[in-house]
């Protein structure tokens, strides 16, 4: 352009200036773009907290005589007898909300508040081991629990529940309850007995099969169906499992991927056979008079632990930890387990339930005896051998790789 | 001094509008564009790296859902025109004194929340529900027959939820037609069909155009209908974006998909406006 002799210098100047202006506008946009980064709360040291972390967190905390408690649906008798007993004994009131339906959305929902160091409206929450548990922990969102404030836990929890792989030494969490993921089905719609994972891929149930939208629940089932051990799985296993799941989806066998709402879909007849959580089916049958069946498939099922955790921004952590410890009293654990029918971390509850059964009569006696003997509430070592935990991810990159393989299946 | 004031005056006059645009359009846009070009994870934070690959990955992973959304949006819009035109025509030409009543009745269901209405349809149409249950009991339908979870259910939901947005603009266009124009056509020996085709239809087109804009764009990006009435084989792009933001906290992918959807819709709308002419729309908007 500069070689053109006829060009008006003024025009040239104008052009250059304008172009310069545009360039600076572009760079301003670039700077604006770069300035919009989302700050993380990554705290690599969080997994091994400072020795004084507990003292530092609990220093100066006082009781407010009120706890806001976030839990999953179907995790307590709607009459809340355990919480009423707690309020009666301690004078601490409890606002119990069943607001957690799935871990991913729960983390996404509270993450912005927690990273802004704001309270989330709950002093206590029940969160599952897995991807989001690690995210909560690594982000420094969980308060370190003071062992001195958990005497019942120390005395009554099973050794197995004091050394969980996802939270060594239970620094940030203690178990609420464990549960088993198996298959539930409606025997009115499906007349043959269901025994295997591959039944979830049966074209006879086209459009009537439900799976979980949680990528770990989902991935584990596909891996086990292919004969792989999820806990020791490799990215190669993940890809094969994803292909197996895509096949189920592309053939229209699957109806949908569900969170806690699967139980509603089963009740309405939208699905006939679905991945399910053990205690839910028991409670549904009791409360709605349905007759759904729950089986642990031959190839194996998933076992997970839902845990008490206190968010760092909790307004009333002292009352929250008092409530946590209350649930480790054998009588309270027995009362809870006999209603929700999930695996209790308090072995002494079994004897309590047997004692309750001895005193009861008729139907109650039968029901309580069934709970005391149920492998879903008190699994034996042989039962545990059939169950698999979620894959523990060593690095964030590994976890991302897993998510990138399974997410498009669920989200698409 | 007065010269200076004269120079500043126009800028001062556009200031409120300009600030409005800056605050509620430019800032969110730049934030979203920035997010789409960041890398990282929710724990360690996202940092701007200018990573365009996110767009490539997002589109290749979710192109089926993107395409499906446009198809569902288009089908819903076509069905909407077919349903809304006669309704608007009847109210405009035969509604008489009761026109306001009919319009009110049309809008009445929409006083209830959008999500609630959609969930109600799910209750009604569910597999063993009050409609399908009895039909299955008497053996008219097979046991595994279902309406929910099919593309039909999702498109029907879209049509139902966006109906007023098509009826109203078409009604406004039709209502404005001077009856004497139609009479003149008849006087000039046009039969009713010809009068409709040559007089009413062209005059109503701007309303249809506006209606298409008001329904196709939101219907294509809707996520409630397919989430409530659909299944895993009817997932729309809005659901994917929602889940990327609110389930997996994968903000870059969510933003990249949002931008892609916006670009596709904008190009579509511009092409459509080019083909039909924007002046007519402006005329309708100016009324």
Provide an overview of this structure.
The complex is a heterodimer of chains A (412) and B (287). With 412 residues, chain A is an alpha/beta fold. Chain A has 2 domains: 64-179 and 304-383, 3-Layer(aba) Sandwich (D-Maltodextrin-Binding Protein, domain 2), CATH 3.40.190; 181-301 and 388-411, Periplasmic binding protein-like II (D-Maltodextrin-Binding Protein, domain 2). Chain A has helices spanning 9-35, 53-58, 81-90, 103-115, 131-138, 151-156, 215-225, 235-250, 262-267, 278-288, 317-326, 330-340, 349-359, 362-373, 381-386, 396-411, and strands at 38-39, 66-70, 93-97, 124-128, 174-185, 209-212, 254-258, 273-277, 293-295, 301-309, 387-388. With 287 residues, chain B is an all-alpha fold. Chain B folds into 2 domains: 1-36, no CATH class; 52-286, MetI-like fold. Chain B has 12 helices and 2 strands, in the order H-E-E-H-H-H-H-H-H-H-H-H-H-H. In chain B, a hairpin with a 3-residue loop joins strand 1 and strand 2 (45-48). In chain B, helix 2 (53-94) crosses helix 11 (251-276). The radius of gyration of chain B is 24 Å and the shape is flat. The mean pLDDT of chain B is 90. At the A-B interface, helix 1, strand 1, helix 4, strand 7 and helix 16 of A face helix 1, strand 1, strand 2, helix 2 and helix 10 of B. Strand 1 (38-39) of chain A pairs antiparallel with strand 2 (45-48) of chain B, so a sheet runs across the interface.
């Amino acid at each position: 352009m500069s070689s053109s002799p006829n060009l008006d210098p003024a025009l040239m100047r104008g052009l250059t200036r304008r172009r310069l202006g545009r360039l600076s506008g572009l760079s301003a946009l670039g700077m604006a773009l770069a300035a919009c980064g989302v700050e993380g709360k990554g705290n690599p040291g969080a997994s091994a907290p400072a020795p004084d972390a507990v003292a530092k967190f609990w220093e100066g905390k006082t009781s407010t005589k009120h706890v806001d408690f976030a839990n999953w649906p179907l995790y307590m008798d709607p009459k809340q007898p355990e919480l009423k007993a707690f309020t009666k004994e301690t004078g601490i009131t409890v606002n119990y909300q069943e607001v957690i339906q799935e871990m991913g959305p729960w983390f996404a929902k509270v993450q912005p508040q927690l990273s802004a160091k704001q309270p989330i409206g709950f002093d206590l929450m029940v969160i599952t081991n897995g991807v989001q548990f690690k995210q909560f922990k690594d982000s420094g969102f969980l308060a370190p629990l003071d062992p001195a404030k958990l005497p019942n836990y120390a005395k009554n929890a099973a050794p197995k529940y004091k050394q969980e792989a996802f939270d060594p030494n239970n620094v940030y969490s203690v178990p609420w309850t464990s549960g088993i993921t198996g298959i539930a089905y409606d025997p009115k719609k499906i007349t043959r007995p269901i025994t295997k994972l591959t039944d979830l891929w049966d074209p006879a149930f086209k459009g009537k099969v439900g799976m979980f939208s949680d990528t770990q629940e989902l991935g584990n089932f596909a891996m086990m169906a292919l004969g792989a051990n999820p806990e020791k799985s490799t990215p190669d296993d993940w890809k094969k499992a994803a292909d197996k799941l895509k096949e189920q989806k592309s053939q229209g066998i699957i109806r949908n991927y569900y969170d806690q709402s699967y139980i509603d879909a089963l009740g309405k007849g939208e699905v006939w056979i679905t991945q399910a959580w053990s205690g839910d089916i028991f409670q549904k049958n009791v409360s709605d008079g349905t007759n759904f069946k729950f089986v642990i498939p031959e190839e194996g099922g998933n076992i997970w632990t839902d845990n008490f955790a206190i968010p760092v921004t909790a307004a009333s952590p002292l009352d929250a930890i008092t409530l946590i410890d209350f649930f480790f009293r054998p009588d309270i654990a027995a009362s809870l387990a006999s209603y929700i029918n999930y695996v209790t971390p308090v072995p002494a509850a079994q004897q309590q339930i047997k004692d309750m059964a001895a005193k009861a009569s008729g139907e109650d006696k039968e029901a309580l005896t069934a709970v005391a003997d149920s492998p879903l509430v008190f699994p034996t070592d042989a039962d545990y051998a059939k169950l698999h935990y979620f894959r523990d991810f060593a690095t964030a990159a590994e976890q991302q790789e897993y998510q990138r393989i399974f997410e498009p299946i669920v989200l698409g | 001094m007065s010269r200076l004031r004269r120079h500043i005056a126009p800028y001062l006059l556009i200031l409120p509008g300009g600030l409005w645009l800056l605050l509620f359009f430019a800032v969110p846009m730049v934030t979203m564009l920035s997010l789409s070009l960041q890398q990282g994870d929710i724990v360690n934070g996202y940092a701007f790296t200018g990573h365009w690959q996110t767009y490539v990955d997002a589109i290749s992973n979710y192109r089926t859902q993107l395409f499906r959304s446009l198809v569902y949006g288009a089908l819903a819009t076509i069905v909407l025109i077919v349903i809304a035109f006669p309704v608007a025509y009847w109210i405009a030409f035969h509604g008489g004194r009761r026109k306001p009543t009919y319009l009110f009745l049309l809008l009445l269901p929409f006083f209830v929340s959008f999500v609630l209405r959609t969930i109600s349809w799910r209750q009604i149409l569910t597999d063993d529900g009050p409609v399908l249950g009895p039909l299955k009991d008497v053996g008219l339908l097979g046991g595994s027959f279902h309406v929910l979870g099919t593309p039909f259910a999702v498109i029907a939901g879209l049509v139902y939820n966006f109906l007023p947005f098509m009826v109203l603009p078409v009604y406004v266009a039709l209502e404005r037609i001077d009856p004497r124009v139609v009479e003149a056509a008849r006087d000039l020996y046009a039969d009713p069909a010809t009068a409709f085709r040559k007089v009413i239809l062209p005059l109503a087109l701007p309303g249809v155009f506006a209606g298409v804009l008001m329904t196709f764009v939101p219907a294509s990006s809707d996520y409630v209908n397919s989430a409530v009435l659909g299944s895993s084989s009817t997932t729309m792009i809005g659901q994917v974006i929602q889940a990327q933001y609110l389930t997996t906290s994968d903000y870059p992918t969510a933003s990249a998909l949002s931008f892609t959807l916006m670009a596709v819709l904008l190009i579509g709308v511009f092409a459509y406006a080019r083909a039909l002419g924007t002046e007519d729309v402006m005329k309708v908007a100016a009324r």
